[in-house]
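ARCHIVE CARD
Drawer: 12
Card no.: 0347
Subject: one protein chain, sequence and derived structure
Cross-reference: see card 0346
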Amino acid sequence: MARFGLFLHASDRGTEPARLFDELAEEAALAEEVGFEACLIAEHHQSPNGHYPAPLMLAAGIAARTKTIRVGSSVLLTPLYHPMHLAEESATADLISGGRLILGMGIGYTARDFDPFGVSLKERASRMEDHLQFLKRAWTEDGVTFRGRHFSFDNVTLAPKPVQQPRPPIWLGGDVPAALKRAARHGDAWIGFPFHGLETVVERTAFYRREAEALGRRPMVALRRDGWVAEDRALAMRQYEPAVRSFQRFMQELHSHDEWFRDMTERDVQQEAGNRLLLGTPEECIATARLFAEQAGVDWFIMRFRQPDGPPHAEVMRAIELFGREVIPALRAGDPEAPLVVDP
């Protein structure tokens, strides 16, 4: 029915950065052991929440401490990169991981990320188009000549090339129609926004699938989802309370129009747990995930358990293990060796 990945929120207000990496690597290794198939990392700069700014470096570090779990980004802020550097760094990450890279890409949304690099938010979509057209060719061809709106290349050859054949999978994020069309046109999967309820997710996935199928391309939906699992619902709610504080601050910082997340209370979480979150007992998480898989056609759930305010590492480890032991087996589907690339 579905496959599962782990989204590592590479920030924690109460943990030293060096120790935080060790904790994240431990969480990824445990996730691998209990059945998660991917571990993806976000990118932000100047972040008050302490996000790591270099997801591919962090992914490579986690790859060195794991054996089979796929590693990568969700999402890498593509317009901030030079296309040749991104092609080289992603190919190197694929090489280090033994062919396990998933390159999740997005165009970004906040000036705080863009201003230090002198890149205009107004150019983000057109820069992304240049990247997507060049990247696939650089990974698979020699002597590439390319003319884009922002970048041009004459007879360039990437070396070494990625391990995966024909290339690493590209997953594209975004939540507006233009982003969904881009994912259908260029991506091997669309990464769904984590905060929407079922009705909105159904609408977005239907739009994306129509666009992909009209182009003769196979759609795949990777839905990011926040949540928590514990032996009983009351314990899950109590342990997840630090994450609620993180949601509130994050949405206020973004001046979000999503009133539910911006102003959420514990009562809101109780009432909406099955719609906005995968939260509760293993049985409740199974029921919620099955609903999204059946009604919205979700192929992957990319789960985030840890927020900048917690829960703490030890509790996160217990939640990952419980989710992997009891939730994933009830919903797992697909061949882990099946290709994730739609076309070369």
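Annotation on reverse: The first helix runs from residue 17 to 34. The chain has one domain: 3-331.
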